[in-house]
Design brief:
This protein has three domains: about 5-85, Winged helix-like DNA-binding domain superfamily/Winged helix DNA-binding domain (Arc Repressor Mutant, subunit A), CATH 1.10.10.10; about 95-175 and about 270-295, 3-Layer(aba) Sandwich (D-Maltodextrin-Binding Protein, domain 2); about 175-270, D-Maltodextrin-Binding Protein, domain 2, CATH 3.40.190. It contains nine helices and eleven strands. It has helices at about 5-20, 20-30, 35-45, 65-85, 100-120, 130-140, 205-220, 230-240, 285-295, and strands at about 50-55, 60, 95-100, 120-130, 145-150, 175-185, 195-200, 220-225, 245-250, 255-260, 270-275. The strands form three sheets. Strands 3, 4, 5, 6, 9, 10 and 11 form a seven-stranded mixed β-sheet that branches. It has a two-stranded antiparallel ribbon with strand order 1-2. Strands 7-8 form a two-stranded parallel sheet. Strand 1 (about 50-55) and strand 2 (about 60) form a beta hairpin. The longest helix is centred in the N-terminal third of the chain and has 24 residues, at about 65-85. It starts with 6 loop residues before the first helix and ends with a helix.
Length: about 300
């Protein structure tokens, strides 16, 4: 008869893996070292594989132990979140969330309102910046998670708001896809000018690099009239009629015009929207907000 993975056994196993010392792990879970050793013997019997190497300096994980550690972390988080929800416990604390300006304008009100109704005791601090800057913030643990852009078209090497050498911190699960579009003043003449005047985002972001490369591939001359990581600055340039800009389709203001191929501009790729975290094992609060984003972000 098969046996189940016991939550207490998994919690003790994770404590050993994180401390590397039986005495410290025992103190963390409130057991004696002998009781902890018996738990690990039981767990190894359930999985029918050795999980720990015992050395003079402590313990290390076997290959099976490393695999179990990943699963154990996932199971414990889901268990603790489910128990807290059933008990009516509310999440508290400060969540540091970040995203590009265009996502903030379109998605943030919807996401924050919904999350606040579920967890009113959570404070959300928001930082807006281009995706390359967000990856830098994540690397410094200055934010907990970020909504970022990655290559969104199958087989495409393009991405709008991510660096060319994109960080592996970004998730692979695309929550939604956003087409990039050329945008200008409605009825304006900027798109007809030669060279084409452009207002683009941060120089190391692909919503700056790829429009230029697309124009070069199409043989269309251009000049950089304005560059800024500020969405309001780019939109202001488009409204002035002095330049063409590139935005995700959902971020285009009603008073601006999405340019069509009839304007002589090449097609632009779609980007994928995903989440990136500052650490491999997010906190319960970060995990809850990420689950909320995945569940409630409106589909494209």
């Amino acid at each position: 008869m098969s046996q189940s993975l016991d939550i207490d056994l998994l919690r003790s196993f994770v404590a050993i893996a994180e401390t590397g010392v039986l005495g410290q792990a025992a103190a963390r879970v409130g057991r004696t070292q002998s009781a902890l050793s018996m738990q690990m013997q039981k767990l190894e019997g359930i999985v029918e594989q050795p999980l720990l190497y015992r050395t003079g300096r402590g313990v290390t994980l076997t290959a099976t132990g490393e695999r179990l550690l990943v699963r154990a972390g996932e199971l414990l988080r889901k268990h603790d979140e489910a128990l807290a929800e059933l008990r009516g416990e509310q999440l508290t604390g400060v969540l540091r969330f970040s995203c590009p300006d265009d996502y903030a304008v379109v998605f943030l009100p919807y996401l924050l309102q919904g999350f606040a109704s579920l967890h009113p005791r959570v404070q959300v601090d928001v930082t807006c910046a281009p995706t390359p800057r967000l990856h830098e913030l994540l690397a410094r643990h200055a934010v907990d998670l970020a909504l970022v852009s990655i290559a969104g078209s199958a087989g495409s090497s393009n991405s709008s708001d991510s660096s060319v050498d994109a960080s592996g911190a970004a998730g692979t699960d695309v929550i939604r896809r956003e087409p990039l579009v050329w945008v200008a003043r409605r009825g304006g003449a900027a798109a007809l000018l030669d060279p084409l005047p452009l207002a683009l985002g941060a120089p190391d972001a692909l919503d700056h690099l790829w429009p230029k490369r697309s124009l070069e591939a199409a043989g269309r001359a251009y000049r950089l009239a304005y560059a800024s990581s500020s969405l309001s600055g780019l939109v202001g340039m488009a409204r002035s009629g002095q330049a063409v800009i590139v935005l995700t389709r959902t971020a285009v203001p009603d008073d601006l015009e999405i340019l069509t191929p009839e304007h002589g501009l090449p097609d632009l790729p779609s980007v994928g929207v995903t989440l990136a975290f500052d650490r491999k094992e997010p906190t319960a609060l970060t995990t809850a907000f990420a689950a909320h984003v995945r569940k409630f972000l409106p589909a494209a």
